[in-house]
Each structure stands twice: as C-alpha cells, then as structure tokens.
Specification:
mainly alpha; Growth Hormone, Chain: A; globular
Length: 363
C-alpha cells in the first residue's frame, strides 16, 4: 500500500505533462488499462517481489486520474456547469471508495481473495472498453488548438513549455492548500474515533457513528458545493468561510464532552462544510491553470493530497501515543485555519495565465 501511494504521488506531475502533450483521453485509457491489469496481476502472483512491482505499476497508473480527468472536464464541460461537473466527479470517487470494501469482501468471502482481485481487474477493463467506445469527450476545438500550437512551436523552433511556472506563488499556495485539506480530512478519518474514546470515554459505537455521519455528510456537501460553485465567482470566500466554521466546530468537539445526538449533529455539519470546499477548491485550481497546462497544474497541486495524507497520521499518532489526545482536534482545527489563510491570499486571475516558454534562436 505504501508503494502504491508513493508511486501515485511521484508520477502525478509527469502524467500531467503527458496529458498536456498528448491529450487527456489516451492517457486516461492507458492508465485505466495498466491499473486494471496490475490489480488482476496481484491476484495471480505468488512472489512478494512481483507484488511490490505490481503495486508500483498500479500506483503509477493511478496517478493519471487527477490530471487527465480534470483536463477532460475543463475542456468538455460548459463553464456554467463546471462546478457541478467537478462536484459529481469528486462525489463519484467517494462513492466508489465506499463500495470498494463491500465489493472486495463479498467476492473474497465467496470465491477467495485472488478471484476477487482478478474479477475487479476484469470489470475495470470492461469499463475501460466502454469509455473507449464512447469516444473522447474533449475532441474538437481543444485538440485542434493543441495541434495548431504544436505546429507553431515547431515552425518557430521553440522548446517545450517551462515548468518553472509551477513554482509561482499562486500555485505553491494551492499546493499547500491541498496538503492542508488532505491532512485535515485524513486526521478526522484516522484518529477522531480514538481521540473521542480517550478524551471523553465516548462509546466506540457512538464515536464510529459520528465519523460515519461526517463522511456521508461530506459526500452530500460535495454535490451541494458543486451547485454553489456555478453560482459564484468568489470560490476563495466560499472555501474560507467553510474552513472557518469547520475549525470552530472541530475545536468544540475536541474541548467538550457532548451528548451523542449533538456530537453527530456537529460532525455532520462539519462534514457538509468540508464537502462544499471540494468543488470550490477545484474551481480555484482550474482558474489558476495556465492555458494548455491544466494537466501539469492538477498533477502538481493534487500531489499535495499524498503529502498531507502521509504526514498527518504521523503527527497525530505521536500525540496520541503520548496521551495528548486533546491535541488531535486542536491540531486539525489549526490546519484548517492555515488552509483558510492560503486560500484567502490566493487571487483568482481574471484571464488564463500564459505558460512561459523558452525560446531558442534558429540555426
């Protein structure tokens, strides 16, 4: 699992470059195919070394989805409905994650874990074939413009676009924004139940139910946030307000012993607000992406998800091991306040940025 996650994080930026160079649709199909074959291969192998290699291969294939999917949505969806498209896309990912354990456990109990992995790999290949037959949703002006730009670059003897723009202040802030949002979300999922039990002797069933309410409310919030994102241009203010309210709620949850109903109500509200942030966050990235570099930008900033998801459990686990469980919620609240600061200082451009290019004199 570590190799899978690390490979996903490492390869997202290179995959973003491939998306911008060759188009999102073929990269998406290739990634889906390799991922499905790798998962099926894990079900067939008997070697731990082969297992590790297949995990790396699956992780590298998994890295195509953020840059490819967002590039397709950005080019194929009417801008007036883009927020809803981002919301449905993210909601579908959450829904798929929720279905995965149920599906795998059912197949494993019925036919064994090897058959379970081979089966889901085969099902994935069927989905890949269906996507291929449905055709590229981004064909037309987007591909024509890309071909025209390539021809112009060859005629002018220009070098490929520089990647220095990824380290501009707005994109670095958005990268940090993704790190912090992932850290807060991961912290809630991994240690909120433990902290509630340690701090207030909350029954395990109640604490787990409260987390479940938080996660389900987050999914609903994603859909609501997608609708809201299409009716406002101030996505930074939407995200900042949601973060501020969530930070206050999480701080209260970690400071006072609450009745079960009130605990679930507060965490449900916090989950709803966290869901609202997701489409607003994606719209901020889309607005900041230079023309022709959507894949690179989403590949870069979404790498922050891997960073935040890796760092937060280490810090919270260290605190819990030292009996400082109250800091679990306070630290999550602090992370949300920091995320609020990054989004409020990230200005949305009124027009797409231009990708800086390096020119080489003709010979």
């Amino acid at each position: 699992m570590t190799l899978f996650a690390a490979a996903t994080g490492i390869f997202q930026i290179p995959m973003g470059i491939l998306v911008d160079r060759n188009g999102a649709f073929p990269v998406l199909l290739a990634g889906l195919t390799v991922l499905c074959l790798s998962i099926a291969g894990i079900g067939l192998t008997n070697s731990p070394w082969a297992l590790g290699a297949l995990a790396v291969l699956a992780g590298s294939a998994n890295s195509v989805f953020h840059p490819a999917n967002y590039a397709i949505l950005g080019s194929a969806v009417n801008p007036s409905r883009l927020g809803r498209a981002f919301g449905i896309h993210t909601f579908a990912g959450h829904f798929g994650n929720a279905l995965a354990p149920i599906t795998i456990i059912f197949l494993a109990v019925t036919w064994g874990w090897r058959t379970a992995l081979v089966t889901v790999g085969a099902m994935g290949l069927m989905v890949t074939a269906a996507i291929f037959l449905s055709g590229d949703p981004g064909v037309g002006e987007t591909h024509a413009a890309r071909r025209s730009a390539r021809s112009a670059n060859r005629g002018n003897n220009q070098e490929p676009s520089s990647l220095k723009f990824l380290f501009s202040a707005p994109l670095l802030k958005l990268f940090l924004f993704f790190v912090l949002t992932a850290a807060a979300s991961n912290g809630m999922q991994t240690f909120s139940v433990t902290a509630l039990v340690m701090l207030f002797d909350t029954p395990l069933v109640t604490a787990s139910a409260a987390l479940t309410v938080f996660l389900f409310a987050s999914s609903v919030g994603i859909l609501a946030g997608g609708i809201l994102a299409d009716f406002t241009r101030r996505h930074d203010l939407v995200a900042a307000l949601a973060f501020a309210l969530t930070a206050v709620i999480i701080g209260i949850v970690g400071s006072v012993a609450l009745p079960a109903f009130l605990l679930m109500l507060l965490l449900g509200t916090a989950g709803l607000l966290q869901g609202v942030i997701r489409p607003a966050r994606d719209m901020l990235v889309h607005a900041a992406a230079p023309e022709g570099a959507t894949g690179k930008v989403f590949g870069f900033v979404t790498t922050g998800i891997n960073v935040g998801g890796a760092l937060m459990p280490l810090g919270l686990g260290w605190l819990v091991d030292r009996g400082a469980a109250e800091w679990v919620f306070w630290l999550i609240s602090l992370v949300m306040v920091l995320a609020l600061a990054t989004v409020l200082t990230t200005h949305q451009p009124t027009e797409p940025m231009k990708v800086p290019q390096e020119h080489e004199s003709g010979t």
